[in-house]
Amino acid sequence: MARREGARRPPPPPDEIRRQLGWRLAHPDSERLLIEFYLIPTNYSCLATQIALYWLFAPARRAARRSQSHQILP
């Protein structure tokens, strides 16, 4: 009987679900903003390192492609 009565009840409102799960809306903190601004230069330096390595090894890649294209197949 209780099962049928529970099946007819509507689901709880979203606020109640959040309360039961312990969820809360995160407010933008000034600390979080500072951390995000701190990580931007890190991302740029990682990108700059990747570009530098790409340009550094570009001649080696070209030489490898040239040597592969001039191979004589049996």
List keywords for this structure.
mainly alpha
Topology:
Layout: H1 2-8, H2 14-21, H3 30-69
The poorly predicted ranges are none
Portion of residues in beta strands equals under 5%
Topology pattern, helix = H, strand = E: HHH
Number of DSSP-assigned strands: 0
Q: Main beta sheet: strand number and arrangement?
A: none
Mean pLDDT: 80
Query: Which structural class should the secondary elements be placed in?
Result: mainly alpha
> How many helices?
3
* Distance N to C terminus: 82 Å
Helix share bin: over 70%
Shape category = elongated
Tell me the radius of gyration.
30 Å
Region (Disordered): 1-21
Would you write up a description of this structure?
With 74 residues, the chain is an all-alpha fold. Helices cover 74% and strands 0% of the residues. The protein contains three helices and no strands. The longest helix is centred in the C-terminal third of the chain and has 40 residues, at 30-69.
Offer a quick outline of the entry.
The protein is mainly alpha-helical. Helix content is 74%, strand content 0%. The model has no long low-confidence stretch (mean pLDDT 80).
